[in-house]
């Protein structure tokens, strides 16, 4: 087997490792690293730990006491070359004796300081496997969003009836989708740093907004309440939510990143809050779960203006069944 083929297989393994990283890696990216020899034997591997702990490269090197003379590494993102919460990974790679590093994607964060150039300048061969860059982009879409825009990635999840209603009676909540959809919703919660709703949703539904159906961390609750109309005795208030009174969504989101280092927010309603995000073009992805039920009346997910904006800026990227319900994922164009 040629070395390029071996390296591609190692990179696939590194990508799989990166998907197993915890949401607590944020604001760092989720990265996987594999150390291997010329025959394709895996010597060590690692993934990025929670923020402030070891990066993937260090995790893999520690397991072999940083003794990697003549070995190679496949890493999903360019190694860092700066002192942050941890020392530079590039220095550790150099000291370990690694002779060649395969990288899936170049680091875009200026703080990373060109780790690949450092390695090359110090005699280590570096090869970029660009065909894997798209997979790294998808896995780390939250990270790259903050690097490029200084705001969190915004995912909207909504459950609707077959005819597009989120409730059959304005001012009340409704059970729309089934168990499989509920499990899916909780997996979305576990994958985001924060979960946001408006004051009306808190006052009407009294939601917990926790992760219960899957293993994972509870996201930080965020409540948009311009007039501080939220019920202070609601269950969610026990979890110290961030309450946002800022009327401009874009400014509020930038503050969530700059002040709280939140790089991903799952918005779970309601219709007015989603419309506000849409009007400022601040949504990256929609996860809409449609039930078999038809209501015939109530409150629609989109009013006429919001529907026009949705049709203009989003296209379907995925569709699948969740029990009897239908999931459609729409990405921003």
Explain this structure to me?
There is one protein chain. It is elongated and about 70 Å long. The longest helix is centred in the first third of the chain and has 17 residues, at 3-19. α3 (89-96) runs parallel beside α4. It has an eight-stranded mixed sheet with strand order 10-9-8-11-6-12-15-14. It is α/β, with parallel strands linked by helices. A hairpin with a 2-residue loop joins β14 (314-322) and β15 (325-332). Helix content is 32%, strand content 24%.
Features:
five-stranded mixed beta sheet, alpha/beta, 333 residues, 15 strands, eight-stranded mixed beta sheet, 11 helices
Q: Approximately how much helix is present in the residues?
A: 25-40%
Stretches with pLDDT under 50, minimum 5 residues: none
How can the largest sheet be summarized? 8 strands, mixed
Rg is 22 Å
H-E order: HEEHEHEHEHHEEHEHEEHEHEEHEE
DSSP strand count: 15
Strand content of the residues, in percent? 15-25%
Supply the number of helical segments: 11
**Whole-number average pLDDT?**
94
State the end-to-end distance.
40 Å
Principal-axis shape equals elongated
Spell out the blueprint of helices and strands.
Elements: H1 3-19, E1 32-36, E2 42-47, H2 56-62, E3 72-77, H3 89-96, E4 100-105, H4 115-121, E5 125-128, H5 133-139, H6 141-149, E6 153-160, E7 165-167, H7 179-191, E8 194-198, H8 199-205, E9 220-224, E10 242-244, H9 249-260, E11 264-267, H10 271-279, E12 285-290, E13 299-300, H11 304-313, E14 314-322, E15 325-332
Parallel strand pairs: 3-4, 4-5, 6-11, 6-12, 8-9, 8-11, 9-10
Antiparallel strand pairs: 1-2, 1-3, 7-13, 12-15, 14-15
